[in-house]
Amino acid sequence: MTNMIKTFAASESGAVTVDWVVLTAALVGLGLAVMSVVSGGVEDLSTDINSALTDTDPLTSPFDNNSAGIPGSGGSTGGGSTTD
Fold it and tell me: How far apart are CA 47 and CA 59, in angstroms?
């Protein structure tokens, strides 16, 4: 009986499994942390895209005015370039 306990205590086959479980848990935690940081910016960007698409009239040319809110885009001057 004591031999079996000594063999079990000296065995390292379960330690590798514990290492993988800890590493996997750390990666899942890191992924959740990144998702919580990035989700706010993605939500704001999707709201901006939604409002730009809602305000756009599909029957008119998107290059006639600056409906997308992009500086220097649109207008009859060809993009608002100031170089001669």
Answer: 23
